[in-house]
Amino acid sequence: MAVVGWLDSLDVVDDWADAPEDATLVGLLGAAHELLVEYIGADNVLDPPPGRYELAQLYLTQHLWARKQLGDGDTMGGEGFAFSTYPLVMEARGLVRPKTSPLAKLL
Fold first, then answer.
1. Does the residue 18 lie in any domain?
2. Would residue 102 count as lying in a domain?
3. Which of 45, 61, 73, 83 is buried most deeply by CB count within 10 Å?
4. Which residue has the higher pLDDT, 99 or 27?
């Protein structure tokens, strides 16, 4: 198990029951971290990172794994239980670089 980006792969396995094997998981975590740092802008990454960065990395990792499993499909799951993986990308992006104040929706 390894720390990749903002996450420890051991913690990810505890939170994600269907996580891929360790070598694949570490690669996906690394790819997700790189994409998020690129999206945020390396100079804008907060240090220490807020917890929302970890959640964003997990969501994007799950999305990348789903895409790897599904190819060009955008849903996974059995008949009647399918869910779209695309919102995970939007959720991850919103966590690391919100377009509006997170408090705006509360008022």
1. yes
2. no
3. 61
4. 27
Report the chain's terminal Cα–Cα distance, integer Å: 43
Q: How many domains does the chain have?
A: 1
On whether the CB atoms of residues 76 and 85 are closer than 8 A, the answer is: yes
DSSP 16-85: -TTPPPHHHHHHHHHHHHHHHHHHH-GGG--SSPPHHHHHHHHHHHHHHHHHHHHTT--EESSTT--EES
Bridge partners of 75, per DSSP, are 84
42-85 pLDDT tens trace: 999 999 999 999 999 999 999 899 888 766 555 555 565 665 66
Residue scoring higher pLDDT (96 or 101):
96
For residue 24, the enclosing domain spans 3-97
pLDDT score recorded for residue 80: 59
Residue 68 lies in a domain: yes
